[in-house]
Amino acid sequence: MTKPFQGISVPLSNNTLVKRRYSVTQDVVSYRRCARQYGAFNVHKYAPAQQTQAYFGTVLHQVLDRCHGHFHGIIDPSTKGLLPDNGQILSEEDISDYFGEAKSARQTGKTDPFPPSDIVRYFIQVENGLNSKGILAIRSELRVQAVKILQYFNALEGPTLYPRVRDTEHRLQADRTNHILHGVVDLLVDAPNKVLDPAECEMWDYKGSRRFDLNSTDWETYEFQMRVYAYLYQHKHGVLPRKAVLYFLNELDGPNCPSKRPVNALKEVSIEPNEIQVAMDEFTKTVKQIEQSRLSDKWEAAASGSISEQDCKNCDLRWDCKTPNSGQGVKPIYP
Ligand code: SF4
Predict the structure, then answer these.
(1) Residues 217-228: pLDDT tens digits?
(2) Which residue ranges have their beta carbon within 6 Å of ligand 1?
């Protein structure tokens, strides 16, 4: 009897290397902060109960992106060259009143009242998008604080910064043999004399925090992030940027809009070639550690003292982790 597949030979396919993509912040910085949290939420994709930690920073970034789009006429060509709200600032009471009216309108099935300013309108658009992904503000004061900071930034920095912005959400990536490394820089800013030259450009990254609240590990992480971005920038443009700058938006917070930039708002990160090399070596080492964790499916919690208590406070795994509370763990609420 003839066998059906007799005489047929199927060649083995060549093993192709599938390169994994590693994001500077979502993968490498997250894993370095806490491998256990990274494994649970980034690799196994468990859904966090609340994403309040992500809320504040994301809302500030996305509204500022719209402010840049407004000035450059990307959203509506008629706003080209104009500051959102012409740099005018609503009081905290006006912002709270609007949020209150919008809430009652929703509860009674009416249409939301029209936002009282460009920034509040952009804020509501961004917030609706975040809410649909389960990213919420836990306290209503946080919403008012975010709008206040955005207005202050717009009034204080907008007139000189917006005209210098050459690109926002500037995407960078590099093929690193076994993996692809990528990152997104918040702003590329031209030198004040407006020479269109990549060597004259500054990379800016917004941080939704106060500079004063950072511990030494946070600093190292931010420096590491900016140096990896500098490597990627050089890979794309052939030269290093002129500067790498961090802007701490919460330094603007207060009862009134600052009349000049607070001294702690801006911090330049040194990007000497030897420092970039150290950051890249660390990056490669961390990618290898992530690959090993994936193979063994072992994800170690951060050691006590190497992560801020605030980060642990916002983590759903804290009830089953010895690290928070200076290594004492968290006391269960029940029974
Ligand atoms: S509680 Fe802290 S150390 Fe423990 S898994 Fe969460 S972030 Fe990591």
Answers:
(1) 888 889 999 999
(2) 34, 36-37, 301-302, 307, 311-312, 315, 317-318, 321, 323-324
Nearest residue (by CA) to ligand 1, atom 4, is 321
Instruction: Name the domain boundary from 135, 156, 177.
Output: 156
Specify the long-range contacts of residues 89-92, CB closer than 8 Å, at least 24 apart: 89/151, 89/152, 89/155, 89/257, 90/116, 90/117, 90/120, 90/147, 90/151, 92/144, 92/148
Helices (H), 135-215: 140-156, 158-161
CA of 185 to the centre of ligand 1 (A): 27
What is the domain-level CATH number for residue 248? Answer: 3.90.320
Full domain range(s) for residue 248: 20-46+164-294
Q: What is the pLDDT of residue 10?
A: 78
42/176 same-domain check: yes
List pLDDT tens digits, range 263-291.
999 999 999 999 999 999 999 999 999 99
What are the tens digits of pLDDT across the range 294-325?
999 999 999 988 888 888 988 999 999 999 98
Same domain, 203 and 282: yes
CA of 178 to the centre of ligand 1 (A): 29
3-class DSSP state of 305: coil
